[in-house]
Design brief:
Layout: E1 4-8, H1 13-29, E2 33-39, H2 56-74, E3 81-86, H3 89-96, E4 101-108, H4 112-118, H5 121-128, E5 132-138
Parallel strand pairs: 1-2, 1-4, 2-3, 4-5
Helix pairs in contact: 3-5
Length: 142
Amino acid sequence: MITRVLVGVDFSEASKQALERAGSWAAQCGVPLVAMHVLQPPAPMLPEAQIALPDPAWLHTMEDHAREQLEAWIRPYAGASAIVKWGGPAEELVSEADSQTLLVVAQVGHSTLERLLFGSTAARVVRLSPCDVLVVRTEKAK
């Protein structure tokens, strides 16, 4: 039994389509819609062999901005909630899900080489997820 629909949003056109599909499923099932955006921590820079970590205030500003954007995206979906986390997108989405979640992610049409070089968040979510996953297929923008 599905008790909520969790959708990953990276603010791409593909994730907008995934959000629409997730909103439809949440409404049909009568369960809450939760949209999640995952910020990836910037890699430490090495100027002159010294590690320089990002300013915590700047990181907080990034998180606030992402939350504002996500809340704007979910405004049309009554009762929807937003989560913003730091980490790896697939791992954070999976950690937020439980066995009664429907997890929705977008799959952009990458080439074989792109999948080899960069991997696929959707593929990792499917492999690691404790619940059903709906992969919304979209074509890569030309």
